[in-house]
Description:
This protein is an alpha/beta fold. The protein has seven helices and eleven strands.
Amino acid sequence: MKLNVLFLGKCEYEKALKIQYELLRKRQNNEIEDTLILVEHPPVITLGRRAQKGHILKSKEFLKKEGIDVFQINRGGDVTYHGDGQIVGYPIIHLKSISIGIRNFVNNLEELFIQLLYDKYHIVAGRDPKHTGVWVGEQKIVAIGLAVKRGVTMHGFAFNVNTNLDHFKWIIPCGIENRGVTSIQNMTEKNFDFQKANQFVFNYFLKIFHYETYKEVTLDQLLLEDRREIYESLQKATMA
């Protein structure tokens, strides 16, 4: 099996969401192979299908003043935060191509980070029987929220590397009260190489999901000439 990887760098959430939908359509139509998008977002709050607006603890005025957008989206889960120093991954994966169901797909994502954290950062992490994601004790270090459309996954995971944890005070993360959020930086009191952490995530994704080969791609390679207008708008968006 072959996997495409698209490193978007820092990209606003709404622009990355448009890219997700375009690549989702292309994967559904078998125009591209399985693709993993890795991106870093400026601070943003998203609400999943089961989210309660009361789980956002700050007023609209406060969030507007801070330049924080809020998006209602179609992934599973409740409210979450994305921001600087956090690796966000969007797997655009046809589940039949890897012969796996959605529950095992989520389990594999959790296992990816459990192994990565132990091997590369000497952090012992695990699962919680009631809540999706990866936990270090009572603190979540990786959030997971997915949607499956015509057999293809979208949305994905958020991995706290050097994330500003104070921003999680704006919400009740994932709607779970009396639990905390942590990061590699918080656990080790060190600021880690963000690009190296991205590479670790990609390497462990290949390993856990058993992809034999990969190709680092650009939007230009993924989007065909007959979609040039869409490509140009997305390209401008990522450069804005």
